[in-house]
Amino acid sequence: MITLTTSQPARHSAPTVKAIGLAYLIWARPDLERAAAFLADFGLIEMHRTEQAIYFRGTAAAPFCYELRKADKPAFVGFALEVASRDDLLALAALPGSSVVQALNKPGGGECVQLRDPSGFLVEAVHGRQAQAALPHRSALALNTVDQMPRVNDTQRAPVGVPEVIKLGHVVLELADFQATCGWYTQHFGLIPSDVQVLPDGSPAVVFLRLDLGDTPADHHTLAFAQGFAAQYSHSAFELVDQDAVGMGQRILRERGYRHAWGMGRHVLGSQIFDYWQDPWNAKHEHYCDGDVFTANVPMGVHPVSAEAMSQWGQPMPASFTRPKFSLGNIALMLRNLRRSPDVSLKKLITLARLFT
Q1: Cis omega (within 30 of 0) on the bond before 316?
Q2: Three-class secondary structure of residue 176 per DSSP
């Protein structure tokens, strides 16, 4: 039997609030037009811009799901979690280091509280955003199988063109301080661990956290964390209508000269059909469809971590997908966190490197 030997991941018995959605990502980019061109080819829709920012949406009713900020250096800034009420904002504002409740001066309006998680990522808790009219998107294609054939005297022709992103699905972060950061999200936003992958000593290597929506099904994960030597962005994922849309996305992005990261394939945990691409600053963005959804009563699964456990079929995960860039800055971060973080050890980093190469 596989056992977990750390306190996290685990549900919290009385969280401060329970987040109800992943609202948007926040990015800093030195060239907004170059960044916007990738996002348009990826399938997001520009819906508002100022001199300092551009906002993008999917076809779902959220006013936007991706914020580009003008900056001298490229960086992943953070993300926003939707909460259910203004009282939730007030409860979060009472936490040490939080901002007061303030107006959200972005498309859709509403209010927000700004927080920093233990790894330093900005989290904007938001409430009261005004939904926009959902945009039309094509229906999922009907599939003929050996047992059911809904498509008779008809052909299968997916439209050729940029796929329609429906919504922002999840974001994955690498962490040095795994225990503190995971515990912060379960305690203060009520996230539930769906699955955890553990090292041979029982310590967590990857955790997939979902929203607690009670009896309403929630995506298998909204946030996921991977043990690493520093706090870094890993990837974000955007839902498409079906597997043909994922395949069409691969065709379009390849034809337009973007760098492919991994795919297509189907994940083991979460079950999504996936395909990963890199933006002009090598930040990984995932197209996916057909993910698992769980209600709140489903218990956490515990699994051994390995490269083979990352996909059921398709291209094996390339070593470059998880291999860090050993710049002088990253080496300095690793040495600092080896001394500082209780979750980072040389033995653990060597084990992770061996498992994924």
Answers
A1: no
A2: coil
Could you give the CA distance from residue 231 to residue 225 in angstroms, rounded to a whole number?
10
DSSP-based three-state secondary structure for 347: helix
Q: What is the pTM of this model?
A: 0.96
CATH top class, domain 21-131+166-355: alpha beta
Buried b (16+ CB within 10 A) or exposed e, 270-299: bebbbbbbbbebebbbbbbbbbbebebebe
Burial of 328 (0-12, 13-18, 19+ CB in 10 A): exposed
Q: What is the pLDDT of residue 307?
A: 85
Contact 9, 208 (CB under 8 A): no
> What's the rounded Cα separation, in Å, for the pair 228 and 235?
14
* DSSP result, 283-322: -EEEEEE---EE-TTPPPEEEE--SGGG-SEESPPPGGGT
Rounding to the nearest 10 degrees, give the CA dihedral for residues 177, 180, 182, 183: 170
Q: Is 7 helix (H, G, I), strand (E, B) or coil?
A: coil
The low-confidence residues of the chain, meaning pLDDT below 50, are none
Distance from C-alpha of 33 to C-alpha of 327, rounded to nearest angstrom: 27
Which of these, 117, 94, 152, 124, lies nearest to 23 by C-alpha position?
124
Give the residue among 310, 267, 307 at the shortest CA–CA distance from 289.
Answer: 267
**Three-class SS of residue 267?**
coil
Taking only the tens place, the pLDDT of each residue in 308-324 is 889 999 989 998 888 77
Inter-axis angle of helices 243-255 and 32-42, to 10 degrees?
140
pLDDT of the residue at 255: 97
The closest of 199, 200, 182 to 191, measured between CA atoms, is 182
- SS3 per residue for 201-261: CCCEEEEEEECCCCCCCEECCCEEEEECCCCEEEEEEEECCCHHHHHHHHHHHHHCCCEEE
Residue 324: the pLDDT is 76
**What pLDDT shows up at residue 242?**
97
Calculate ∠ Cα 289-293-294, nearest 5°: 165
pLDDT the model gives residue 34: 98
Map out the domains of the chain as residue ranges: 21-131+166-355
